[in-house]
Amino acid sequence: MTTRETTALMPLNDLDLSLSLGDRFMVIAYGAVQWPWLLRSLDGGRKKDKADLLAYLELPLDALPNLGSWKADTNFLWHIVSAIEEMQPAQVVELGCGASTFVAARALQLFGGGKIVSFDQHAEFAATTQSWILDNKMDAEIRHAPLGAPPTGWPGHWYQLSDVPNEIDLLIVDGPPWAIHPHVRGAAASLFPRIRPGGRVLLDDAARPGERVVARRWRKEHRNMDFTLDSKGAKGTLLGYKHPA
Predict the structure, then answer these.
(1) Is the entire prediction scored with pTM above 0.85?
(2) pLDDT of 103-143, one tens digit each?
(3) In this structure, is the dihedral angle defined by the CA atoms of residues 158, 66, 138 and 59, taken in order, positive or negative?
């Protein structure tokens, strides 16, 4: 989650959310355990890696000015580019817009020309990111999706999604933030039935303890998919692959 503008160290606040006592306890407990991962995430990656990525996408060096912290790091962005170049997906769906949307839109423009729809809980941030992408003559559809009740069996708050494509080739999961609940991104599994055979999932921040718990549950509950952790980069990426039919 990054724009061309300077962004704060911490993620955007979700002030309208009322967390339960149980959710607050989980956030505090995990915060006490995963602070080394949070500190590591302040690094957005080496400048050379970022420069190489931008050169590969034929973009200027200042196209992505702010990486690290709560924003996607260079390694995660490389995974997005590699998946799109290899798969040439017709439909990409993303949860949590920003730098990942920008990079995915550019990769789609260069490799295959598929579509991306991205959902974010912050209306103003979604609009800013949409303008940023359009100003760079790229195509992406970014929708405001407020946080509300999660799918059955998952904690925290979740995107209130509408008009999600029935078939997804690549699902990018880069939100909501862990401060809502350490396992909050696990609810992305509600979209797994829409992923086509041979489709993929990319989960950001996958080296954190909360996301590792999510990955274990995904492996247990979705036997038609394989999940592999790439611990490289500042935050790690979980790579999911749906078996062919």
Answers:
(1) yes
(2) 999 999 999 889 999 999 999 999 999 999 999 999 999 99
(3) negative
C-alpha radius of gyration, the chain, whole number: 17
**pLDDT at position 22, please?**
86
Q: Is the dihedral of CA 61, 67, 72, 74 positive or negative?
A: positive
Tokens of 76: 């995660």
Q: For residue 60, is the peptide bond before it cis, meaning its omega torsion is within 30 degrees of 0?
A: no
Q: What is the pLDDT of residues 32-69, one digit of tens each?
A: 887 776 666 665 567 888 889 999 999 998 888 666 54
Whether the CB-CB separation of 71 and 99 falls below 8 Å is answered with: yes
Tokens of 204: 């950001």
Distance of CA 211 to the CA centre of its chain: 12
CA nearest to 93, candidates 78, 108, 82: 108
Which residues face 157 on adjacent strands?
none
CB atoms closer than 10 angstroms to residue 41: 22
Alpha-carbon distance of 236 to 233, in angstroms, equals 6
Q: Are strands 147-148 and 91-95 parallel, antiparallel or unpaired?
A: unpaired
